């Protein structure tokens, strides 16, 4: 299986065995280019050439590993326009974080109440979304939209490989033009903005085979003409498949600079309760399932921040492990609120700021570090509880990957606070692996998502089980101290 991960920082291509073992990978940085007109872009041809070169690098190095399928995952909202007949690029490739489309997002916002827009899309409107970017392109130069199709970055690379233009549901929902209620492009809504609904291509199930690698391309890339090509889907949701978070109530936790949570849930109508969680919702890459998503922008980032502050040179992870060796005994004396970049779900407020509460002059590095780890774990619990209430699925298992899993004491703390088992599978590059698995599932190599999980977990999983006594003490501290103080901090900056 081959996975392609088109990320904000790097683009990666990986070759995997069917049990998830990484055979080889290669990576190149994702570079933006200043347009000279006040916004940044990606260069689509340069991106494609890099992907093609990385595929060839892997197939040359492993000629004994024929590639049966390729799955592609990407940044959720980045996209561009291509000509529907020729495939020629007709617009800039706009990154998801490019803010040029903020005025267009304001225009969309006027078309309904926040709740109405959320029920339609599963999203809280942002300049990031594809519809806002399309309207910006329309305002800038309507000729760009003539005979054009809007593709995600995944869709663009899939087109270059196979010649097919498509979306999958998990990425379609990030456009703000896909109706979650109807499971289809919202044609009246799209026309209301002066757009032809045909600007959006067909939506096929995540991982569905779009076609095979174009014969003229196969030899150049070292692939077979029968190699299947699929859009795996939204990057975080693909990763959830890879770690085995495939049943309602399962949660994927990405413990990076930001901590992202993706929960699997049964599809259900979205209402006021879901809206108030501050989470976003969409279609999972697991067939017939939905997902909720939220996170803490300063989780691993808070750990990196305190690492730098506590020493002239950032504390090494071995030093952190020594300082945290005895912290799994219940709540500490000091408390930290991890809002270095504002608060996220379930109470988004970009103006909220971080704070330490309860420090004493006897406290040192160990206590400060412990408070940071504990505060981020409490914030995880706030998201977990909010999602559990509205999804109607008890969350008793969370699957974690990322740099933060190096700190066993932190994982144990999270398990104790949430009263949930934390599982750490032996997976490298979960996002890229998830894309490959989605393609293998959609292409019939696996019969079900459960078969994918069984294959990938055949190499074992490390489990952190909650302790009932510590959980009770953490629960009291969380409910009596953390929750009310977090609410107070949010109220200070509205």
Q: How is this structure best described in words?
A:
The chain is of the alpha+beta class and 494 residues long. Helix content is 38%, strand content 20%. It contains 17 helices and 21 strands. Strands 15-16-14-13-19-20-21 form a 7-stranded mixed sheet, sandwiched between helices. A 6-stranded mixed sheet has the order 3-2-1-6-12-11, with helices on both faces. A two-stranded antiparallel sheet has the order 4-5. β4 and β5 form a beta hairpin. α9 (235-243) crosses α15 (430-442) and α11 packs antiparallel against α13 (365-391). The model has no long low-confidence stretch (mean pLDDT 95).
Binned, the helix content reads 25-40%
pLDDT < 50 runs, ≥5 residues: none
Rg over CA atoms = 23 Å
Tell me the β content: 15-25%
User: In order across it, which strands form the biggest sheet?
Assistant: 15-16-14-13-19-20-21
The number of distinct β-strands equals 21
Largest sheet: number of strands, sense, barrel closure: 7 strands, mixed
| Morphology | globular
Supply the helix-strand structural class.
Answer: alpha+beta
Query: Averaging pLDDT over every residue, what do you get?
Result: 95
**How many helices in DSSP terms?**
17
Separation of termini?
A: 48 Å
């Amino acid at each position: 299986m081959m996975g392609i991960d088109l990320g904000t920082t790097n683009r990666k291509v990986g070759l995997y065995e069917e049990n998830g073992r990484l055979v080889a990978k290669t990576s190149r940085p994702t570079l933006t280019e200043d347009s000279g007109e006040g916004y940044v872009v990606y260069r689509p041809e340069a991106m494609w050439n890099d992907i093609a070169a990385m595929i060839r690098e892997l197939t040359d190095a492993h000629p004994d590993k024929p590639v049966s399928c390729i799955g592609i995952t990407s940044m959720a909202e980045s996209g561009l326009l291509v000509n529907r007949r020729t495939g020629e690029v007709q617009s800039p490739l706009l990154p998801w974080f490019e803010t040029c489309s903020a005025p267009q997002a304001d225009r969309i916002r006027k078309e309904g109440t926040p709740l109405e827009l959320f029920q339609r899309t599963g999203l809280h409107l942002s300049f990031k979304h594809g519809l806002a970017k399309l309207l910006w392109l329309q305002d800038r130069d309507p000729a760009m939209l003539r005979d054009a199709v809007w593709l995600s970055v995944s869709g663009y690379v899939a087109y270059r490989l196979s010649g097919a233009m498509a979306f999958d549901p998990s990425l379609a929902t990030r456009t703000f033009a896909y109706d979650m209620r109807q499971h289809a492009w919202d044609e009246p809504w799209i026309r209301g903005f002066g757009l032809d609904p045909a600007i959006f291509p067909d939506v096929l199930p995540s991982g569905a085979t779009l076609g095979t690698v174009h014969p003229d391309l196969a030899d150049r890339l070292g692939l077979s003409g029968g190699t299947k090509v699929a859009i795996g889907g939204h990057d975080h949701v693909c990763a959830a498949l890879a770690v085995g978070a495939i049943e309602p109530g399962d949660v994927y936790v990405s413990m990076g600079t930001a901590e992202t949570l993706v929960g699997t849930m049964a599809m259900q109508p979205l209402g006021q309760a879901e809206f108030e969680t501050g989470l976003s919702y969409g279609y999972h890459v697991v067939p017939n399932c939905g997902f909720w998503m939220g996170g803490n922008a300063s989780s691993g980032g808070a750990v990196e921040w305190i690492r730098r502050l506590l020493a002239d040179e950032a504390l090494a992870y071995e030093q952190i492990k020594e300082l945290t060796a005895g912290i799994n005994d219940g709540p500490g004396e000091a408390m930290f609120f991890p809002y270095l970049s504002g608060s996220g779900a379930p109470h988004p407020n970009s103006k909220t700021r971080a704070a330490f509460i309860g420090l004493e002059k006897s406290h040192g590095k160990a206590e400060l570090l412990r408070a940071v780890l504990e505060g981020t774990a409490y914030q995880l619990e706030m998201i977990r509880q909010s999602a559990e209430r509205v999804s109607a699925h008890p969350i008793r298992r969370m699957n974690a990957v990322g740099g933060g899993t190096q700190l066993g004491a932190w994982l144990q703390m999270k398990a104790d606070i949430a009263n949930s088992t934390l599982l750490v599978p032996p997976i490298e590059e979960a996002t890229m692996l998830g894309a490959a698995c989605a393609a293998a599932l959609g292409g019939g190599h696996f019969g079900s998502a459960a078969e994918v999980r069984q294959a990938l977990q055949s190499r074992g999983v490390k489990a952190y089980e909650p302790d009932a006594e510590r959980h009770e003490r953490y629960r009291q501290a969380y409910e009596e101290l953390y929750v009310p103080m977090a609410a107070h901090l949010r109220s200070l900056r509205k």
